[in-house]
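Open question from group meeting: does this chain pack into something compact, or does most of it stay loose? Before anyone orders reagents, we agreed to write out a predicted structure and look at it together. Recording both the input and the output here so the notebook holds the full record.
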Amino acid sequence: YDYSIDPNGNDTANKVLRFVGNDLRVLELGTAAGVMTRELQRQGCRVTGVEIVPEMASVAEQWCERMIIANLDELDFTQAIGDEAFDCVVAADVLEHLREPHKILERLRTTNASRLVLSVPNVTYAGLVGALGQGEFEYREKGLLDRTHLRFFSRKSIEWLLLRAGWLPKRWEAQQVPVHRSEFFSDWLALDEAQRGYLLARPDAEVYQFIVEAVPAGDMQQIERTWVEVEAMRAELEAERRHSKEREALYERDLASLKEH
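Structure tokens returned:
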């Protein structure tokens, strides 16, 4: 959890920070030692932090207006925060560490937050799926199979988790990582070309993490309408992706033909 954020970078942390914005009241869940907290303060945000490890909380609180030391799986937001309102709740790489993330998302509705910004790892990442296909499931110190991860998410499952908890996912971004640059590279090399091609052709194949912005939902009819819109958008993107792959295949075929002549 000790890392630095390049202000000019384009990694997950940067995307989360851009989604959040400037000069807001922010509730940050799982501050750890405050790397994200510090950047939020630099963006002019006034941060209330929540962290379970007292030693980490003591470091992060220098960038907070208030620090709450608590276990998110057990935290009563109404009791801890009262009627304090926030412009945004941030849960960057947090939900995967919780026993019951849906209950936390439901309880967050009591904070009167206008928005929720979160990031989660993608369990359908091609490198991970390729390793599973070979019977490999090895927890690691960090990455998608971080040994502290209790939950795993796909695009569909995080969508449904949010909707069930009363949050409408409104904006998405993906953190792409080529498999050859991931912790699964050695398992990837053990696959043959056809297997690798099949896995890379799947949706979100090289999405390592999802960044999502959600807003409080209205009634269930609104949720259902949004779900239909999301599914239609996904179908459109998938059709576009297939068309792109077909054009790429035609290009490769024509290039090979030119080389033969």
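Observations to bring back to the group:
Strands lie at 25-29, 46-51, 66-69, 88-92, 116-121, 167-176, 207-216.
The CA atoms of residues 82 and 195 lie 53 Å apart.
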